[in-house]
Design goal:
By secondary structure, the chain is α+β, with helices and mostly antiparallel strands. The protein has helices at 14-24, 33-42, 86-96, 112-123, 161-173; strands at residues 2-6, 46-53, 56-66, 69-77, 102-106, 127-128, 134-136, 146-153.
Length: 180
């Protein structure tokens, strides 16, 4: 059985979630874990969740509630547990929590893994905005800005991607839109 549990800064699962997070995302596409812990206590819009299969932590999901959007910042299933439907179940539950549209960033379809990831999100109802140029700002010193693509689910056709990008840059990354 799959279960999702919101974590606090005192949760025993933080070390396991940190290991999954750091092994799943390149350094330029993630925060220092200490800044995630700080967000958990300082920002009511941010939450970190552990994904369980039975009693075992098998994944993590970090997300933001941003006005009329929900933003999935990081979503990962532990490498040895992928391909068994856990991610599909978790994402379905996340999408169905409320009717607020969801946005996430993905790497361009440059290899088999990025194409598979995009296909997974498309199968879950996400729309790939492949013609929209989007840059994830740097997560900090020594980290590069990364050209990514936006995917949305539950958004009105023709949603304003510039406004959405400005919202993400300001509220999630703390920079003005277009600043790397």
């Amino acid at each position: 059985m799959i279960c999702i549990k919101k974590l606090s800064i005192n949760s025993a699962e933080l070390d396991i979630v940190r290991a999954i997070y750091e092994s799943s995302f390149p350094i330029d596409e993630r925060r220092d874990f200490e800044s995630i812990v700080a967000l958990m206590s300082d920002n009511v819009c941010f939450q970190l969740e552990a994904i369980y299969s039975g009693n075992e932590v098998v994944g993590m999901l970090s997300s933001w509630q941003l006005d009329e959007w929900r933003y999935v910042e990081h979503f990962a299933i532990e490498a040895t547990k992928r391909g068994g439907g856990i991610g599909r179940d978790v994402l379905r539950e996340y999408i169905e929590r409320n009717d607020t549209p969801v946005v996430l960033e993905v790497e361009p379809p440059a290899d088999v893994y990025s194409r598979r990831r995009i296909a997974f999100y498309v199968s879950m109802g996400f729309v790939l905005h492949k013609d929209y140029r989007y840059v994830q700002p740097s997560y900090g010193e020594g980290r590069e800005a990364v050209e990514l693509l936006l995917m949305t689910c539950g958004a009105a056709s023709g949603c304003n991607l510039d406004a959405l990008s400005r919202l993400l840059h300001a509220r999630v990354y703390g920079v003005k839109y277009g600043v790397k």
